[in-house]
Amino acid sequence: MSDPRSTPANLRVAARHLAEIPDGAVRVTPRPRRVAKPVCDLLRRPNGPRDRQVLWGETVDEYESHDGWSFVQARKDGYVGYVPTADLGPDARTTHWVARPATHLYEAPDIKSPDRTTLSFGSRLTVLDETGAFAETADGFVPKVHLWPADRRFSDPVAVAELFLGTPYLWGGNSRFGIDCSGLVQTALIACGEACPGDSDQQQAVLGRDVADGRMEPGDLLFWKGHCALVAENSRLIHANAFHMAVSHEALPAAIERIRSQGDGPLTAHKRL
């Protein structure tokens, strides 16, 4: 059975490439759209629960716009869901991305000018020009020091995850304003140029290779049923977790035992990229 999280089909429309589609659905070619809101919830159904999030400037493929809702598939990971059509704009070529935990979008190239909004790490931008220490976009000005060119990547996923220390836990979250365990792993890996799906079970299925000897190295991925973490330095892991309600470091043996004893069971996988 196809995974609905990654299958672009509903009762009205379906992607042309799908071998099987729901009865009555029409095969369509999507149009690329750009997220025009700092953080946009990707919902399981219109007005339904949040599954994941997409960020400012990310590209989604829109298969349908119906009653104010767009049925889309995120380019970054293939996740399917619904977003308000009003939160999308025309697609545009990304030139830069936010490579600091967060930044402000200002009205003018001046730190004393009003800020229009706040953008999370990973947000995508089209820079039109530069004025002093600021990059100009169609929506305002961003400090250049907070941006990297679109093709520049980090080399260490643990270092990326540590940028999020203290970020509040949010189920389905993908931003500096709120993030969950699989969102943190995905953000860290994508920032390093590694493809990564959105949910922990998907990540366990496709990422890395199994580690059989039990030796933990920084950057290793640990999985439990419904949870994941990255191994950090000094016999610690880093994860977004509901126990601390934040991204935090935790001693490895203690964390493994705590997670087991609270009812989530033992490790289901230890993997290395």
From TrEMBL:
Pfam family, one: SH3_16
UniProt keywords, alphabetically: Hydrolase, Protease, Thiol protease
Keyword Protease on entry: yes
InterPro entries linked: NLP_P60_dom (IPR000064), Papain-like_cys_pep_sf (IPR038765), PG_Endopeptidase_C40 (IPR051794), SH3_16 (IPR041382)
Tagged with keyword Hydrolase: yes
PROSITE patterns: NLPC_P60 (PS51935)
NlpC/P60 domain location: 151-273
Residue stretches in coiled coil: none
Signal peptide, first to last residue: none
Family classification: Belongs to the peptidase C40 family.
PANTHER family xref list: NLP_P60 DOMAIN-CONTAINING PROTEIN-RELATED, PEPTIDOGLYCAN DL-ENDOPEPTIDASE CWLO
Protein name as it appears in the record: NlpC/P60 family protein
Organism: Sedimentitalea xiamensis
Taxonomic path: Bacteria, Pseudomonadati, Pseudomonadota, Alphaproteobacteria, Rhodobacterales
